[in-house]
Design brief:
This protein has 7 helices and 11 strands. By secondary structure, it is of the alpha/beta class. Strands 4-3-2-5-1-6-7-8-9-10-11 form an 11-stranded mixed beta sheet, sandwiched between helices. A hairpin with a 2-residue loop joins strand 2 and strand 3. The chain starts with 11 loop residues before the first strand and ends in a 6-residue tail after the last helix. The model has no long low-confidence stretch (mean pLDDT 91).
């Protein structure tokens, strides 16, 4: 970070963790931030997209989350190209291995936790603890966007509160800070009402199939709002 001039200090950055949905959430967030007039970077499984002087620069990715030095190098390049924000995937392996070391995120997001990578983490408890390390990289007073209800989401929220973060719950049922209600699914995608975080029962038509993509879109919307995108 020091070698590259601490680029994270000059960028608004969101990190997304969870077993499923990281890639989709990051791509949706990237598109929302771009539509809001910002100049985002995207770091993730399907490749990295940075701001360049003549347009977006696309780079291949060997890992979901690059190593710590590569992250700083990529962010510095994005900043030189005129970028002002970034969204990145944070895998559990990356969090345990310190690939977010030196990062200061404005927003962290958690999608879900299902049985995977137990060959590495050995237990679901250790896997959950690895995901919770994301909160260590979020600035005090920053936002923790957490999808769903239940013991795992509640535990992640409690860990974020202990770190001094502002917790935002995103749900498909009442009681969340951002809620999708009246969900209707068909071959075209999903239709639902959006309520909370500046939305007053806005009707949304999402051209992606499946309730899981509604979940992804909700998390992306909450992240974008936390990073300064208007509700419009």
């Amino acid at each position: 970070a020091h070698v590259h001039g601490h680029p994270a200090a000059s960028l608004a950055i969101a990190g997304v963790t969870g077993t499923n949905g990281k890639t989709s959430v990051c791509h949706l967030t990237y598109q929302l931030l771009a539509a809001a007039g910002k100049a985002p970077a995207l770091l993730g499984t399907a490749g990295h997209t940075l701001r360049g002087t003549t347009g977006p620069v696309h780079l291949e990715a060997s890992h979901t989350t690059p190593d710590a030095a590569a992250v700083q190098r990529l962010l510095a390049r994005h900043l030189r190209g005129g970028g002002d924000c970034a969204v990145m995937e944070a895998s559990s392996h990356a969090l345990v291995q310190g690939r977010l070391a030196g990062m200061r995120l404005q927003v962290g997001a958690f999608t879900n936790l299902t049985r995977e990578h137990l060959d590495y983490h050995r237990s679901m408890e250790r896997y959950a603890e690895a995901k919770a390390r994301l909160w260590d990289s979020v600035l005090p007073g920053g936002h923790a966007v957490i999808f769903g209800t239940g013991s795992v989401s509640d535990d992640m929220a409690e860990r974020a509160l202990v770190r001094g973060l502002q917790v935002l719950r995103v749900t498909l049922e009442e009681g969340g800070d951002l809620v999708a209600h009246g969900l209707r699914l068909d071959e075209r995608g999903a239709c639902f009402g959006l309520r909370g975080m500046g939305f007053d029962d806005v009707e949304v038509v999402l051209p992606l199939r499946g309730a899981h993509n509604v979940e992804n879109a909700l998390v992306a919307t909450a992240i974008a709002r936390c990073m300064g995108a208007s509700s419009e």
